[in-house]
Amino acid sequence: MRVSDFWKDYELIDCSDGERLERWGDIFLIRPDPQALWNTNRTNPMWKKAHARYHRSNQGGGSWEFYRQIPEVWQIGYRDLKFNLKPMGFKHTGVFPEQACNWDLVADIIEKSGRTDVKVLNLFAYTGAATVSALLKGASVVHVDASKGMVQWAKENAASSGVADRSVRWIVDDCMKFVAREIRRGNKYDIIIMDPPSYGRGPGGEVWKLENEIYGFVNQCCELLTENSLAVLINSYTAGVSPAVMSYILNSTVAKRFGGFATADEIGLKVTDSGLVLPCGSTAVWKK
After folding, report:
1. Among the listed residues 115, 117, 116, 145, the one whose alpha carbon sits nearest the alpha carbon of residue 130
2. Which of 264, 265, 268, 225 is nearest to 248 (CA)?
């Protein structure tokens, strides 16, 4: 398992009985986590002193319960990155902290390439942490997400990290349609990053189900890679799509065409109180 363990402004303090206790800067939150199947004793006093807790609804979704006042928006940092946070629907804050190991991985690939012309395509790019990390390493980035609000949030994160003036295009679009148009336009990229949802609908009502779409989509994305491409990274939170499945997909598509090899693993976060690691999804990476 690859662990994001360089955080200072974020901490996974404890997790038990379907919830996690976290510190986001000076703000303590309790959020649902279906991976925390164990029912260990909650001895940390912050379980009873958190600023807010997200309650799931039996009908889907849920809502925040605030015990103490928190800012409407606040910031945390990761290395040279700065992120703007806020509690939003479906338990999120705008950052997936376990993804830090992937931001570092892409940054390291760009840096070790020794190139100043690396082009990155970030698909299903959310609030832009991977985009900002790549920009800081001197790459040019095309950032694509179907949500106008998420793209605006990503722009704000880029500004907070001091890279808003770097070479970046912000695109609000359905990722599958955008990729098809980029192929027709003949555009190419050295690195492709994607964090596709398990299930979703496009702006025209198109249904996306990861298990049905991911192989064909990755195969299509091969058309966007340069002959000197560096990496393809796929992240997944879908329980039925294991790391081994994703590495098989990359090895049978990208590696078959460009050489190299794909590996995959779970990603996770260390739990302060137990010293153990909470699994938080999976990532497959192809490298030349």
Report:
1. 145
2. 264
Residue type, 64: W
Rounded mean pLDDT of 199-205? 64
Interhelix angle 100-113/129-136, rounded to 10 degrees, is: 30
Q: Domain limits of the chain? A: 2-85, 97-287
For residue 86, give the nearest of 147, 25, 175 by alpha carbon: 25
pLDDT: which is higher, 199 or 190:
190
- Which CATH number applies to 2-85? 2.60.40.1180
Q: Which long-range contacts (CB under 8 A, 24 or more apart) does 196-200 make?
A: 196/123, 196/124, 196/234, 196/236, 197/124, 198/236, 198/237, 198/238, 200/146
Which of 213, 216, 219 has the alpha carbon at shortest distance from 232? 219
Confidence of residue 204 (pLDDT cuts 50, 70, 90): low
| Sheet-wide strand order for 62-66 | 10-16, 19-24, 27-32, 52-56, 62-66
% residues pLDDT > 70 (the chain): 97
Predicted TM-score (pTM) of the model is 0.94
- The answer to whether 29 and 18 have CB atoms below 8 angstroms apart is no
- The token pair at 15 is 């997790």
H-helix segments, the chain: 100-113, 129-136, 148-160, 175-185, 210-221, 243-252, 254-258
Which residue from 267, 268, 236 is spatially nearest to 250, judged by alpha carbons?
236
- Summarize pLDDT for 66-107 with one digit per residue, the tens: 999 999 999 999 999 999 999 998 899 999 999 999 999 999
Taking the C-alpha atoms of residue 49 and residue 160, their distance in angstroms, rounded to an integer, is 30
Q: Which fold has domain 97-287?
A: Rossmann fold (3.40.50)
Amino acid at 162: G
